[in-house]
Write a structure and sequence with these properties.
It is built from three helices and ten strands. The protein is an alpha+beta fold. 17% of the residues are buried.
């Protein structure tokens, strides 16, 4: 009988300790710092791939961050944040204008923003199943493209991680 008296409080204390350990492991931020680029991203996201070294001698560098979100049926779907750096090519490049992109995409928006004291352009779109946003930074001899693509139901969580990355982004 006495043993049962201590069992329930011991289980409660154990559950609280496990919950604290889990909360601490997924909260906070990781730091990405390679070459001339550094930023923070939530611990719930993982770095999947790194191409290049984000240095001034690289013609192309990229890192992909991923996480999984569960939909209302419990099925998990991935969300992605991709940071790319590309050296500017000499000569002319014929890309579609932002207006042309928007005319072909529903629920889109274009904005100008500032990222680490650098003016950037943003194009965002929300479709039936997915949401995405692109931030384009033109700095020195490089273009930086920061993108997220996620299931529509995970738009708020992904946008929060994306904004955290943009707020902490440093390009030297």
């Amino acid at each position: 009988m006495e043993r049962n008296q201590y069992l329930l409080p011991a289980i409660i204390v154990l559950v609280v300790i496990i919950a604290l350990i889990l909360a601490l492991s997924v909260s906070g931020n990781n730091t990405f710092n390679t070459g001339t680029v550094s930023f923070q991203y939530p611990n719930s996201w993982s770095q999947e791939s790194l191409v290049g070294n984000f240095s001034n001698s690289s013609i192309y560098s990229s890192v992909t961050l991923t996480t999984n979100y569960a939909d209302s049926n419990g099925k998990t779907q991935p969300a992605y944040i991709v940071v790319q750096m590309q050296e500017k090519a000499t000569g002319s490049l014929n890309l579609p204008t932002t207006n042309n992109i928007l005319l072909n995409t529903t629920n889109s928006s274009v904005a100008s923003t500032t990222v680490n004291n650098i003016t950037a352009s943003q194009v965002g779109s929300v479709g039936t199943n997915i949401g995405s946003k692109y931030t384009i930074i033109d700095k020195d001899n490089n273009y930086y493209l920061i993108t997220y693509i996620c299931p529509r139901f995970a738009l708020n969580q992904t946008e929060q991680a994306y904004n955290n990355l943009l707020q902490t982004l440093k390009i030297n």
